[in-house]
Prior knowledge:
Blueprint: H1 5-32, H2 37-64
Amino acid sequence: MKYTRKDLIRKWKMVDKRIEESVCLLKWLADRYETKPEKQEQVKKFADVLEEFYIAMHTFWKTYC
């Protein structure tokens, strides 16, 4: 199945929004783990990795689309 540029942009916007919401949710969750520092650190690291991926994906799409 071939996608048109319009389809890809629409899908990108949907993924973009979901990743951004996920990063915010993970950061919120990390704040709730104040009594469990090891869990808080794991969630923060995952949120940071997801945020770096989000930035890289954003840069790629701005450059090539």
